[in-house]
Amino acid sequence: MSSLVSLLLKRSPSSSRPSRGCNVFSRRFSSSLPRLCSSDLLRSTGPSEERQDVTVIDQLMNVVRQRSNPHHRSVIPVRVSQLWSKTISSLSTSTPTATAPPSAATATAYPPPTRRMHESYTELILAFASEPDLLDQYTNASGGLRIGKLMENLDSLAGSIAYKHVLGPEVRILGGVLDKGFFIVTAAVDRLDMLKALTPGNISDLRLCGHVIYAGRSSMEIVVKMELVGVRDETVMLGRFSMVCRDGITQKAKSVPGLALSTPEEQTLSAMGAAFKQRKKSLSLHSLDRVPPTRDDVAQLHELFLRHGQNDGLNNHIERVWMEDTALENCLLMFPQERNIHSKIFGGYLMRLAYELSFATTSLFSRRALRFLSLDGLSFSHPVPIGSILRLRSHVACIGSNPKFPLLAHATVNARVVDIESGKELTTNDFRFTWCDDHGPALGRTVVPKTYQEAMEWIEAKRALEAGDEIRKLMAS
């Protein structure tokens, strides 16, 4: 830890760090990275902007819902109902079409150049108050709700919204990929924030709803939220999905309808969606993979080193735990029952697996059951094939606290597909979760990075905790 901090503190403006994953004790810094500073970018994309987004979106979504047609709000099934045996049979008897041009029917059926925002509005009502059997499917061991299972619903909802934007609000059933000439996949989940705890005492009917707020050439920005339905609906979760459209034959980007904006509220939402997309590009170009950490980042890391990185025992009654020692791993076979309409593993199922592993990781570290606060980021790099082996690895990246929560824990989950014959692994997803304890005592342990990669993960996790704090403060006020 001392060598790690020394390298960080002694860096000149022209120096750059080693590639993530290498041990700082065994490799020098590379000089190939640009000499940039991320402080300006962080000021424009920091917690204050995120918290403003949350409140504005929550209010304006209600306006869009009022303009939507109640007969066109139902969810389109994005899971396959056909027997897997029939799918295998059709795949084995079909002829290759990789180079075949789209049919004339497909070309003429492709959607118009624009859609209206409210046409993609979709909602799913989970009638927990009146359907005890349905509630039982979502109930966890403590009597609360299984948030991971609700994440599956939210991913299905986002997919349904995207297909409605392309195909129109009247669509009820999705055909095959080649029948449509295109398919839509989840590219990323930017945030999912839990704004109110769901406890056994406040569970009622839930409304999951959302719509497109921005359409690029082949991408769509979608907002979703979860509400407790009652005399006064109450938002409990708010999130953002990024969806992309691909050609069913070439797999290349395929254009989607633009948005025809007709109200000030829609113009505001569309502008926010465009800003979200640009923000993601900027953050990617200025991430810690490319840009050195700021002085504030290094100062916080150095403070952690001074308190917990120089001894092997307790410091102020706080136990030091190396980040690598918090890791948990899960290996699973990917069965066809969890496939989507594209015959790949359903993204919502992957979200649930990562959520549950993250819960186990943070709870075992903190020695108490924690409550979900936010999904701070999720990327879909590659699809997960049916029949593959999926390797999930999770660890605690940062520990924090504030006056409201005596314990905050941020964990990352990396998902990789393992090739059975070669043993090579391909990263398919990266997940970032924040958890909390509402009423327990302060935690007598903390996480300390040992390598440069872990130090960068600690900084990213610290930023995520700070952004989440700001969002929840604003919603509470």
Q: Could you give the distance between the termini?
A: 40 Å
The general outline is globular
Q: How many beta-strand segments?
A: 15
Number of helical elements: 12
Largest sheet: 10 strands, antiparallel
The H-and-E topology, N to C, reads as: HHHHHEEHHHEEEEEHHEEEHEEEEEH
Strand-pairing-aware structural class: alpha+beta
- The helicity comes to 25-40%
Low-confidence stretches: 11-45, 95-108
How large is the share of residues in beta strands? 25-35%
| Cα-based radius of gyration, to the nearest Å | 23 Å
Mean pLDDT: 83
* Strand line-up of the largest beta sheet: 2-4-5-6-3-11-14-13-12-10
Short structural summary:
The protein is an alpha+beta fold and about 475 residues long.
Q: Which properties best describe this structure?
A:
single chain; 477 residues; alpha+beta; ten-stranded antiparallel β-sheet; three-stranded mixed β-sheet; 15 strands; 34% helix
Describe the protein's architecture and organization.
It is a single chain. By secondary structure, the protein is an alpha+beta fold. Helices cover 34% and strands 26% of the residues. The chain is built from twelve helices and 15 strands. A ten-stranded antiparallel beta sheet has the order 2-4-5-6-3-11-14-13-12-10, with helices on both faces. Strands 8-9-15 form a three-stranded mixed beta sheet. The chain has a two-stranded parallel sheet with strand order 1-7. Strand 4 (206-215) and strand 5 (219-228) form a beta hairpin. The model is unreliable at 11-45 and 95-108 (pLDDT under 50).
